[in-house]
Design goal:
Elements lengths: L5 H14 L3 H8 L1 H8 L4 H6 L5 H10 L6 H7 L2 H6 L3 E3 L5 E3 L2 E6 L10 E6 L32 H9 L5 E7 L5 H7 L2 E8 L2 H13 L6 E5 L4 H9 L15 E6 L22 H10 L3 E16 L4 H6 L7 E11 L1 H11 L7 H17 L2 E13 L8 E5 L9 H16 L2 H6 L1 E4 L3 E6 L9 E6 L6 E4 L1 H9 L1 E5 H12 L3 H17 L3 E3 L1
Parallel strand pairs: 5-6, 5-8, 6-7, 8-9, 10-12
Antiparallel strand pairs: 1-2, 3-4, 9-11, 10-11, 13-17, 13-18, 14-15, 15-16
Helix pairs in contact: 2-3, 5-6, 14-15, 18-19, 19-20
Length: about 525
């Protein structure tokens, strides 16, 4: 693996910037179609687009496409002698040079700091989305890297977590299961210190390479270990009493992010995806321990898989993980797969479909046997956001299914959801009616009914932002929402509607709070 030498890596970064080897530069060179093809591990369009001379085509061929280039070409694009000496490149028998790792330009601008947003993710050959082969291509394993220790680059799960993460200026962030360091790089843009952990020493080395290459080496610290053990171990070393205790400030964080090895598999073949625990115990353990490692008001956000066990409601099952953590929680299930579809997905991910038919069928059978023994009818995928609840407050836990498209980045929407839970928790029905609200931006009203009928059967409010929810309301609810511009108290609006509809204002006030709570909780109405 390349050497972590901050000074020399700085020179490599300067060469990348000078050549335009950035996300925008690659997109401009390759064009949209060829760039999109790389995400499907199809490299032919990109090869055609980089047939010309120049530093940028050379770097794309070297690090995105893993192709050999001539020594003189490489020398025009980067400090080739240092890159060879430090292990970024290797000589070929034909006299050219090849890359030893994937280096993918990454537009690290989700935090909104677009000025210096460029970053680079270092991963094993053939294991980046922008690579040429994907897992099982042999590019890295041919060099003696055990397939179970491969380090991946940017994938769909990585970008999903980056997009849903709450971004605010904080002191300390923990990236649990950092892999090649993608989440740590995002966090370094809005945190004073980032601790990145992983059980795979190779992953920690790659994370250091990504951090140094992206200019955040001094802000990101790496530690080896599983779950919270690396920070708990450090915390215990700072105390004279090494026995169990609540984590001190040294082991608490304002934000914890994790794209853990959440795959529910019969064994721990791949460190990057298999947690090595039975079923969904790894995700359960992470959630159960997170609360004790959060500062007041701190967030923990992770991707997870969970089992749909026969005879159990999945919402109750996953919500039970949060019990006793002292955290509010918003659990969103984005997809569900049956055991056969789930097994096939991860067998292909591991390259098992490229082996012998007998071995593939044997492994397939192991997956199905494991699911059947645990009475698993399906596997859910989604995200979990925890927030340390206010002192003395009863935690709010919501588990819901939402497979529909959402607007990204969703981090601000998630932060606002928790703020609204605080408002609802602090306001009884009388206080709700005494408050002021405004209708959220880009909410539209739809009326559903039989053509020609005077009154609609249903009135639906629909969001065009954030979660893009839709909810059914009655005539009073629609009228109330439409009148909310922040200037009037909710009770005054209801009294006006009662006079207009010639209804009893007391009855209207009695039944309105339930609908107001729903509209606030779902983000249609925003407290002023």
């Amino acid at each position: 693996m390349p050497v972590v030498d901050p000074a020399r890596i700085g020179g490599l970064r300067e060469a990348f910037v000078a050549a335009g080897y950035t996300a925008d530069g690659c997109l401009e060179l390759l064009g949209g179609a060829a760039y999109a093809a790389l995400a499907r591990s199809e490299s032919v369009p990109a090869l055609r687009a980089t047939a010309g001379q120049g530093a940028l085509p050379t770097l794309v061929r070297l690090f995105l496409l893993q192709r050999e280039v001539s020594y003189p070409q490489a020398a025009l694009a980067l400090p080739v002698q240092e890159a060879l000496a430090d292990g970024w490149l290797t000589r070929t028998v034909e006299g050219g040079v090849r890359a030893t790792v994937d280096i993918r330009p990454y537009a690290n601008d989700i935090a909104g700091e677009s000025a210096a947003a460029d970053a680079w993710i270092v991963s094993d050959l053939g294991c980046a989305v922008g690579g040429a082969g994907g897992i099982g291509s042999g590019a890295a394993t041919d060099r003696g890297v055990p397939r179970g220790e491969l380090v991946l680059g940017v994938g769909g799960a990585s970008t999903t977590l980056a997009n849903i993460t709450v971004r605010r200026a904080v002191r300390r962030v923990l990236d649990l299961g950092t892999g090649s360091g993608i989440q740590a790089l995002h966090a370094a843009r809005h945190a004073a210190q980032v601790v990145a952990t992983d059980v795979n020493p190779r992953a920690l080395h790659f994370a250091r390479l990504s951090a140094e290459l992206s200019g955040f080496g001094e802000r990101i610290e790496v530690r080896e270990g599983s779950l919270f053990e690396p920070v708990d171990r450090s915390d215990r070393s700072d105390r004279s009493d090494a026995g169990p205790a609540d984590p001190s400030d040294a082991a608490r964080f304002d934000l914890i992010v994790s794209n853990p090895p959440f795959v529910i598999s019969p064994g721990g073949r791949f460190t990057y995806r298999d947690g090595g625990m039975a079923g969904d115990d790894l995700c359960r353990s992470l959630v159960a321990q997170a609360g004790a490692h959060l500062t007041a008001g701190g967030y923990c956000q992770l991707l997870a898989n969970w089992q749909h066990v026969r005879g159990e409601e999945w919402r109750d099952r996953v919500a039970s993980w949060v019990a006793g953590t002292g955290c509010d929680a918003w659990i969103v299930q984005r997809d569900v797969q049956d055991p056969t579809t789930y097994a096939e997905l991860w067998l292909r991910d591991g390259g098992d479909h490229r082996g012998s038919r007998e071995e593939y069928e044997r492994r397939y059978g192991e997956w199905l046997d494991t699911f059947e023994a645990a009475k698993v009818d399906g596997v859910g995928f989604g995200w979990i956001t925890l927030r340390r609840a206010p002192e003395g407050a009863a935690p709010v836990v919501l588990a819901e299914e939402w497979p529909h498209p959402v607007e990204q980045p969703l981090g601000p929407v998630i932060e606002e959801w928790f703020a609204r839970q605080d408002f609802l928790r602090d306001h009884d029905d009388a206080a709700l009616l005494d408050a002021h609200y405004r209708l959220a931006d880009e909410v539209v009203q739809e009326q559903v009914g039989v053509p020609g009928e005077e009154d609609p059967e249903h009135v639906i409010l629909r969001q065009n932002r954030g979660m893009r929810r839709a909810t059914k309301v009655d005539t009073v609810g629609a009228g109330f929402a439409g009148a909310c511009d922040g200037s009037l108290r909710a009770g005054d609006i209801l009294d006006a509607i009662a006079r207009l509809l010639e209804e009893d204002r007391v009855v209207l006030r009695d039944r309105a709070p339930e609908q107001i709570r729903l509209l606030v909780e779902q983000g249609f109405l925003l407290p002023v």
